[in-house]
Amino acid sequence: MNLLPLFLSITTFFSTMAGGLFALKNQDRLHRILGFTAGILLGVVAFDLMPEIMTLVQSTGTDPVVPMIALAVGFLFFHSIEKLTQIHHHQHEGNTERLPQIGLISALALAAHSFFDGVGIGLAFQVNTTVGLAVAAAVIAHDFADGLNTVTLMLVNKNSSWRSFALLVVDAITPLLGAASTLFFHLSDKSLLIYLGFFVGFLLYIGASDILPEAHADHPSKLTLLLTILGTAFIFLVTRVNL
Questions:
Q1: Residue ranges per domain, the chain?
Q2: Could you identify which of 14, 61, 167, 196 might form a hypothetical disulfide with 107, taking C-beta atoms 3.0 to 4.6 angstroms apart as the criterion?
Q3: Closest Cα to residue 150, out of 170, 177, 169, 168?
Q4: Which residues neighbour 57 within 8 Å (Cβ) at sequence distance 6 or greater?
Q5: Is residue 157 within 8 Å of 34, Cβ to Cβ?
Q6: Is the dihedral of CA 213, 141, 44, 124 positive or negative?
Q7: What tens digit of pLDDT does each residue of 121-161 get?
Q8: Cα separation of the two ends of the chain
């Protein structure tokens, strides 16, 4: 039994926690962090998830429409949850404030993604050690951004710092659980393809509807825009280095 994926996934815990704690300690600069986070999400979609989807489409011979359907379902699913929850909230309280439960749903979705990051590490080691180490390095690098995203999504939706920290811990633990799960099962490429499409839809939605508007709502600035571009460039560099 190869336990190296488990040891490497422990490293992702510290990477995720570092990103989240950075966000918690810099709440007064939250709009700038949100701008950077939006760029990170765009970079993850464009340079990490979409290339992986295209690779899986080719290797499995799957119709490319399948992951695109999953993408649309993911986008509309989270859009529906947010709007229906807001409608229910407005009927009972008559206000339009952001809802903590939306942040909770978003953070849990990111935790699910982190779980599959761990799965990715474990499955990569089932191919060979070289591939496993490359995937682990990529996951460790971008889990800092995952921690950052988890906390900012919680804070921007009016959750407390302690609740945000609790979800950060959940997000930090899930890669270890994902890596451990691969000791007991093998995820098919077609199943992974559908999951990735669904998750891309989620990222596109929260980036466009929540993070970017909030980043520029009260603090429109060229610096925030620049940080968005830098966030995208950061993920591009991370993915290129770990190819």
A1: 4-241
A2: 167
A3: 168
A4: 64, 67, 193
A5: no
A6: negative
A7: 887 787 667 667 766 766 776 678 788 888 888 888 888 88
A8: 26
